[in-house]
Amino acid sequence: GLSFPLVKATSQLQARLLPEAGPWFLTVCTVAPRFLLAALVLLAFRPSVLRGATASEWRQGLILGLSGAAGMLLQNDALQYTAASTSAFLTQFYALLIPAWLAWRVRRLPAPPVWLACGLVLAGVAVLSGFHPFAAGESPLRFGRGEAETLLCSVFFMVQIFALERAEFAGNRTLPITFVMFATEAVLFAVLAFATAPDFAAL
Known about the structure:
- The protein is mainly α.
- The chain has helices at residues 3-17, 23-45, 55-78, 84-91, 94-106, 112-129, 145-165, 174-196.
- Helix 2 packs antiparallel against helix 3 (55-78).
C-alpha cells in the first residue's frame, strides 16, 4: 500500500534533480533497480537457479516478465499524472477484468455472487486506497493520461495472472520462473534507460 505514494514521491524528486529528463526515463529509473536487485539477490542465494530449467519454465518466465514490465512501466509513468490513491484504485481493475474476460470467453453472464464480489472489491479498494472520486483536492474523478495508463496496466497484470494459472505450466518450478521474470524485467528496463536517457551522464 505504501508503494504508490512512495513511487510518486520518488518520481517527483527525480524530476527536480534531473529536469531535462523525460517522463519515461524517470519512470524507468524508478522501477529498474527493483528488478535488477531482485534478480541479483535471487542469484546470490540460489546460484544454480536456472540449472535444469525447462523450455516451459523459460516461456512462462518470459511471459510473466514481459507482461509485468509493461504493467509496471505504465503504472509508474501514470503516477506522474494522477494521484497515488487514484492509481492504487484503478490498478485493481484487473479484479473486474478477469471475471468479465471469463464471462466473454464462455459467453455467459457472471453469477450474482460474482457481481456482488466485484462490487465489494471496488468498495474495499476505494476505502484502502483513500480514493475519493468527487473530492475537491488531489483525486477528483477525471480521465487523463494517468488514468488511461493505469487502466491499461491492469490489463497486463491480468495477463500475468492468467499466465500463472495456465494448465500447460502446472508442472513448472517457482524459482526458475521467478528468476527469468526478474531478469527479463531488469534487461528491458536497462535497455529503456539507455534509449530514453537525455544524455550519458544521466545514467
